[in-house]
Design goal:
The complex is a heterotrimer of chains A (372), B (363) and C (162). Chain A is built from 16 helices and 8 strands. Chain A is α+β, with helices and mostly antiparallel strands. Chain A has a single domain, classed as Cytochrome-c3 Hydrogenase, chain B (Orthogonal Bundle), CATH 1.10.645. In chain A, the strands form 3 sheets. In chain A, strands 1-2-3 form a 3-stranded antiparallel β-sheet. Chain A has a 3-stranded antiparallel β-sheet with strand order 6-7-8. A two-stranded antiparallel sheet of chain A has the order 4-5. In chain C, 27% of the residues lie in helices and 22% in strands. With 162 residues, chain C is of the alpha+beta class. Chain C is built from 4 helices and 7 strands. The radius of gyration of chain C is 29 Å and the shape is elongated. Chain C has 2 domains: 34 residues; 99 residues, Alpha-Beta Plaits (2-Layer Sandwich), CATH 3.30.70. The chains are: A alpha+beta (372), B mainly alpha (363), C alpha+beta (162).
């Protein structure tokens, strides 16, 4: 091992452990960097520091109980994770949920997406050294959290979806609050552009950094805004519409550059799209029951089931093998973070340490999502 | 200038009193001890005040309240932090180069002390009026990077080493711009003595009298000196999100406090120099016109020490504003900025200033 | 010549973008009094608004006669994903019918294992359980997080079905 580290001219490679405790890995991700001065020659992600064996635990839980575990995977898009399992059970049992539930789920998903992107934006700024952005992002995110708390009873791990519907009806204040939030946030979002997107230091640091080609994005399975910034049309909301996404107008953000700045821009554009989706739905939430009639004990028929949703980070797939019992035989989550992380080594070679931080934040990794 | 605000009356009085009591050698030693003690107290006090100011300013930029628990408005917060750092165990890491590791904080702390020795804050409030004050400060301020480099190297930590190397590359380049921007102004002032530079602005500050080149020189100096003090957006040596804490990753307790404090005192030093060169130091705001005599006279009634520290505060606020707004630059961009933008512009500006000075086209 | 113009234009545009950012932060600095969003949490406990649906911890609802609605059917115990609920039941003889009736002895709730998923409240057929709005639930010892939900001396309400 030692011999091969020393190259012909007698110099040694410089190994740096970035993580598991490091300010910019946002959790316990460990990256083993091989450096040549400041230049990165290799990045080796070591994962598993927050592995909680959610997939195995899910094998001992009923389908209703699995949902609360998915909260803890990608905690920033908890609602979408919940929705994935709920949709899978509904599709497997061929239960038709009411329109009201569909619209509620869509609005909640988009609010969660907004909250997630806001947090990402703040953290992105912080990784780049502009700490103030973090606080501005949290100011706006707080409003969404308050809305969530009022209706679902929790701010982050909401566990709002159940197979067949949602746990509670909307709070009477919900519509008013959401409209107010949208009104305020429409004035705050341009500030994001003024602070970071246009800033020459920021653009210089992100443009042309970590270029991901379309072919690579497809072969590595990079989904979500990161993949769409490379031109990979992978928005599940468009390709396999679920809930109320087939009845709203929104554009799938597709950029071609594929660099860190494009990934950044894709998320900023997505925030505008989310606002527009909420705008379209908030005024016409149809009446209806919030819970379709379900048996007390949910049993899936024998077979294999797959459900995909678009979380804030990309495509979340839930694969369930059922043997007809009340607990699944095997559950597999295809988490977006894991696939997005796999591309890190490929796109950060030859860049500098500071670029690695920028690339990591534009990939928007959530470590519990990777490890599960 | 109002004579009542002149500190030399006070210092001269003390000198006379002491001379009556003891021999000239003893007087010199006593005065040196007094001045040294006062300087240490001043640096410690300014450090505490500036750290608090930074935290408060940062908090207001970030919609927070900032420290508000210890003392009214959190005024004793930094003192409490300082006491806490003081009581912490001094650790020398196992693989560190012990001598250099312990030496580095002192070198870093030494630089601002030396520089503060020649800076006049108010009329007569100057430890030593060197006739080459500007030159002395330029020479001394490059020593700070030595401490950072030694600290980064001696810690024997990979992050620290990268941080130290970054800092070295950066400060060596930016030293050029700082010096050139200062030299641009020296053309106008025709003196290297800081007190004479201030005296030359008695009819108006150079930033007003010096036309556009003085303004450009101020901007260049502000940028370059921000970089020299390792503050954001040029805080590459520290680069929290990249190198955890850069060169002082392995330092703790009071040794860390030295690094931390030196950043703030350095900021005070560069802000003072900017004030002296461009805003006339403690010189009140004067207009170089015939009809403005009355106005100038009113301005004289505000004490020089208020003018001096007021202007220093303004420059420090500008530097804080930069820090809490901008993202950090990358190492190659920082060097690009220096060698492709600041240095050529500085040279052209220098030439322009020389032409203006030769043609006498200034007020 | 055009490269020189581009050079200065680049500088100008760059400075402009920097100034745009500084304007935003500058606005907030000078309007700090209006814009500050800090909540000084432990001090504002009295004015703190907790939404009524906030899930603090599981409680059993008792009325003024110290009666609850739990008949010990263990639906909540089965619904709980973490095994944080354990019900110890007892049997008493109903004096009127002479039949043995199941009542709860202890409804044990391990708050340390609870993920506040609300499934037990949903599962309860007689609405005996609810989530309260308590916060600041931290304690010094884990054993203090084990609660017995039915109050001492409480009994089941008459109209609750089996």
């Amino acid at each position: 091992m030692q011999a091969e580290l020393i190259s012909k001219d007698g110099t040694q490679e410089y190994f740096v452990n970035m993580g598991p405790q490091h300010p910019s890995t946002h959790g316990v991700l460990r990256l083993v960097l091989t450096l040549d001065g400041e230049i990165i020659k290799r990045v080796e992600p070591h994962i598993g520091y927050v592995h909680r064996s959610i997939e195995k635990m899910a094998e001992f839980d009923t389908y209703k109980q699995i949902i609360h575990l998915t909260d803890r995977m990608d905690y920033l898009s908890a609602h979408m994770n919940n929705e994935a399992v709920a949709l899978l059970v509904e599709n497997a049992l061929e239960i038709e949920v009411s329109d009201r539930v569909k619209v509620i789920r869509t609005i909640m998903s988009e609010l969660t997406r907004l909250a997630s992107h806001q947090l990402w934006w703040g953290v992105m700024g912080m990784d780049m050294g502009a700490i103030t952005t973090f606080l501005y992002a949290f100011r706006d995110r707080e409003m969404i959290n308050d809305i969530m708390e009022e209706t679902t009873g929790a701010r982050l791990t909401m566990n709002y979806n159940t197979p067949g519907g949602v746990m509670f009806d909307l709070h009477p204040n919900f519509q008013k609050q959401v409209k107010e939030f949208i009104k305020i946030f429409k004035t705050k979002l341009p500030e994001y552009d003024e602070l970071l997107s246009g800033n020459i230091i920021f653009t210089e640091r992100t443009k042309g950094i970590g270029k991901l080609s379309l072919a690579d994005a497809i072969s590595f399975g990079v989904t979500g805004p990161s993949g769409r910034a490379s031109g990979f049309a992978c928005d599940v909301r468009k390709t396999n519409p679920y809930s109320a996404y087939d009845r709203v107008n929104f554009t799938e953000i597709l950029l071609v550059e594929g660099d860190a700045y494009a990934r950044y821009k894709a998320r900023i554009f997505e925030m505008w799209e989310s606002i527009s989706i909420i705008d379209q739905l908030i005024d016409n939430i149809p009446e209806g029951v919030i819970m379709a009639p379900m048996k007390a004990i949910v049993k899936l028929p024998k077979g294999e089931f797959y459900q995909r949703v678009e979380t804030a980070r990309g495509e979340l797939g839930v694969f369930v093998v059922s043997d007809g019992n009340k607990t699944p035989y095997r559950v597999k989550f295809r988490s977006p973070g894991f696939s997005n992380l796999s591309v890190l080594d490929h796109i950060s070679r030859g860049h500098k340490i500071a670029d690695l931080v920028a690339i990591m934040s534009t990939l928007d990794l959530v470590i519990p999502d990777i490890d599960r | 200038m109002n004579a009542i605000y002149d500190f030399s009356i006070l210092t001269g009085g003390i000198h006379e009193r002491l001379s009556g009591l003891m021999s000239p050698t003893a007087v010199m030693i006593t005065e040196m001890v007094i001045i040294g003690t006062l300087l240490i107290v001043f640096v410690a006090l300014m450090g505490l005040v500036l750290v608090l100011a930074e935290r408060k300013v940062a908090a207001f930029f970030q919609l927070r309240l900032g420290p508000n628990r210890v003392g009214p408005w959190g005024s004793l917060q930094t003192l409490a932090d300082f006491l806490k750092l003081l009581t912490k165990e001094l650790i020398t890491t196992k693989s560190a180069d012990k001598f250099l590791y312990n030496l580095a904080p002192f070198i870093v702390m030494l630089t601002p002390f030396l520089a503060l020795g020649v800076i006049p804050f108010a009329p007569g409030l100057q430890i030593m009026d060197m006739n080459i004050g500007v030159f002395f400060i330029t020479a001394v301020s490059s020593m700070g990077v030595l401490g950072i480099l030694i600290g980064g190297w001696a810690s024997n930590n990979k992050y620290s080493l990268i941080g130290g190397m970054r800092s070295a590359a950066m400060v060596v380049s930016y030293e050029l711009s700082v010096t050139l921007a200062i030299m641009t102004m020296v053309i106008m002032t025709e003196s290297l003595s800081l007190s004479e530079i201030i005296a030359s602005q008695s009819d108006g500050w150079w930033i007003i009298k010096g036309h556009i080149p003085a303004l450009i020189a101020f901007l260049l100096y502000l940028t370059a000196s921000t970089a020299e003090t390792n503050r954001g957006p040029f805080d590459l040596a520290e680069a929290e999100s990249e190198l955890t804490a850069g060169f002082h990753t392995e330092y703790g307790g009071i040794k860390f406090a030295f690094f931390f404090l030196s950043e703030f005192v350095n900021m005070l030093v560069v802000a003072s120099i900017a004030t002296i060169l461009f805003f006339g130091g403690w010189m009140p705001f004067h207009l170089p016109f015939e009809w403005a005599v009355g106005f100038n006279h009113i301005m004289d009634f505000i004490p020089g020490i208020v003018w001096g520290f007021g202007k220093v505060t303004f420059v420090i606020f500008l530097m804080m504003w930069f820090r809490w707004t901008f993202p950090r630059l990358r190492i190659d961009q920082i060097l690009n900025l220096e060698w492709k933008y600041l240095l050529p512009m500085n040279l052209v500006n220098f030439l322009l200033m020389a032409l203006i000075a030769l043609s006498g086209f200034y007020l | 010549m055009s490269t020189i113009i581009a050079y200065f234009k680049g500088i100008g545009q760059g400075l402009n973008t920097l100034w745009t950012g500084m304007k935003v932060t500058g606005y907030y600095f000078f309007h700090a009094r209006k814009e500050i969003i800090t909540m000084q949490y432990p001090d504002n406990r009295d004015t703190l608004k907790i939404p009524e649906r906030f899930r603090g911890r599981v409680v059993m609802l008792h009325d003024q006669n110290n009666e609850h609605a739990c008949n010990g059917c263990t639906m909540c115990e089965m619904a709980c994903p973490n095994g944080s609920i354990k019900i110890i039941t007892d049997k008493i003889l109903n004096p009127e019918t002479g039949k043995a009736v199941r009542i709860i002895d202890k409804h044990i709730y391990h708050f340390s294992m609870c993920t506040l998923c609300n499934l037990c409240v949903q599962a309860c057929p007689s609405n005996a359980l609810a989530m309260d709005n308590s916060y600041e639930n931290s304690v010094y010892d884990r054993s203090e997080l084990t609660f017995v939900l039915n109050q001492p001396g409480s009994k089941i309400r008459d109209n609750v079905k089996d």
